[in-house]
Amino acid sequence: MSELGAGISRPRIRPQPSLRLGRSERTRAAILDAALAFLWTQPFRSMTVNVLMENVPVSRSAFYQYFRDVHELMETLLADLGDEILRVINPWLEGSGDPVELLRRSLTDFVGVSRRQGPFLQALSDAAPMEARLEEAWVDFLRRFDDVITARIEADQRLGLIPEFEARPVAVALNRTNAFTVIEAFGRHPDTEPEPVLEALQRIWITTLYGSVPTHGASRNRPGPEQAALSSHR
To answer: Which residue ranges make up each domain of the chain?
Structure first.
């Protein structure tokens, strides 16, 4: 499951076998891939349609069949990344069982995705303060996770697994910590080794929400009724 030990290569858009995609889908994916490759080494302010389409085997005009401009392209990349992150953290958001172990697994895969997408996140966070559309997209991206993290904290509070406190400010703080940490660690190359980043995030999240950091792989000694309640809640 973990991508921490994998070699880092430039991220790709939905790496499905190309024969399963129609020509239109392949062209759209190629344009998005060209944008990610560009942002791997250059800032958003230097991105133009002409430069992107030099690396896509179709005419420049094909760009406008899929995107109005490079801002919409960036918004699409960010939305796709949000979907991917939600998928990999879903074990904690929706899973049943030991919440600490589910959180460990979700953070592990979150760090793996963030390491691959670090240069894109860096480019976006750099551009957002100067580009109103990208700033709005970035804020919406973060709030999307504020909402689901808040919901999970409140669900575990109802089960007595997390102490009582106002959930949303804590969710926002944890979410912003994640964003800052992975951009700082993985936004430029050479990037930081992922294991210390993962350990830091796990320590912050687990101690904040559940009160302690058990030895990796050890289950928490929660009473049986609470675990049963958690399973039935999910």
So the answer is: 69-233
Looking at residue 223, what is its pLDDT? 37
Instruction: Collapse the DSSP code of 69 into the 3-class scheme (helix H, G, I; strand E, B; otherwise coil) and give the result.
Output: coil
Complete DSSP assignment for 86-100: HHHHHHHHH--S-HH
How many alpha carbons fall within 13 Å on the CB side of residue 139? Answer: 8
- All residue ranges of the chain with pLDDT < 50 are 1-2, 5, 7-10, 14-19, 216-234
pLDDT at 24: 83
Q: Looking at beta carbons, which pairs linking 67-74 to residues 24 or more positions away fall under 8 Å? A: 67/31, 70/35, 70/44, 71/131, 71/133, 71/134, 73/31, 73/32, 73/35, 74/35, 74/44, 74/124, 74/127, 74/134, 74/137
CATH 3.40.50.300 fits 69-233, yes or no: no
The span from the CA of 151 to the CA of 90, in Å, is 13
